[in-house]
Amino acid sequence: MFERHFRPKSCVSRIAAALLAVFATSAAFAQSDDLILQMNEARMVRLPQNVATLVVGNPMIADGTPQNGGILVITGKSYGRTNLVALDAAGAVLLDRDISVTRGGVQTVTVYRANARETLNCSPACDPVLSIGDEKPIFELLAKQIEDRNALSTGQK
């Protein structure tokens, strides 16, 4: 007598759903390693032991400052994506993380006047924000003001 083995559709769909859940979970874990921060925001990253060299792919997007106790402070400088690589003395990769720097929160407002663009942070009052893509005179004026303020705070002016 011929005996046929089959799986009911519900069993196949349960297996497919389980496999989908496994793949979705593994994709979420892969992305959970990404460090996501906003421009002008700092986050701390615990470094593995024996780090001899730190490399930030594009220090114009994010930069890192090592601290005591195996801590690295990552600061978002401009929006975009870059990465952080930590190597030991022999050149072996100890850490390799993607870094995403986003433009800003919900308080950011972009004002367009003809072809001129200006970015404001409206929390609670609207103040200009140094933002890539803003009109050159606005950007340069704000950059100069920030530079002057920083020089005053460090006693260089």
Note the topology.
Layout: H1 9-32, E1 35-38, E2 42-46, E3 53-56, E4 62-67, E5 71-76, E6 80-87, E7 93-102, E8 108-113, E9 116-122, E10 126-128, H2 136-153
Parallel strand pairs: 1-7
Antiparallel strand pairs: 2-5, 3-6, 4-5, 6-7, 8-9, 9-10
Account of the protein in words:
- This protein is of the alpha+beta class.
- The chain folds into two domains: 68 residues, Immunoglobulin-like, CATH 2.60.40; 46 residues, no CATH class.
- The strands form three sheets. The protein has a four-stranded mixed sheet with strand order 1-7-6-3, with no helix packed on it. A three-stranded antiparallel sheet has the order 2-5-4, with no helix packed on it.
- The N terminus is likely disordered.
Q: What's the number of helices?
A: 2
Q: What is the third-level CATH name, the topology of the largest domain?
A: Immunoglobulin-like
Radius of gyration equals 24 Å
Instruction: Say how many strands there are.
Output: 10
**Protein structure class:** alpha+beta
Give the C-level CATH assignment of the largest domain.
Answer: Mainly Beta
Integer tally of domains: 2
Q: What about the largest sheet? A: 4 strands, mixed
Strand % is: 35-45%
The rounded distance between the terminal residues' Cα atoms is: 98 Å
Strand order, biggest sheet? 1-7-6-3
Point out poorly predicted stretches: 1-12, 15-31
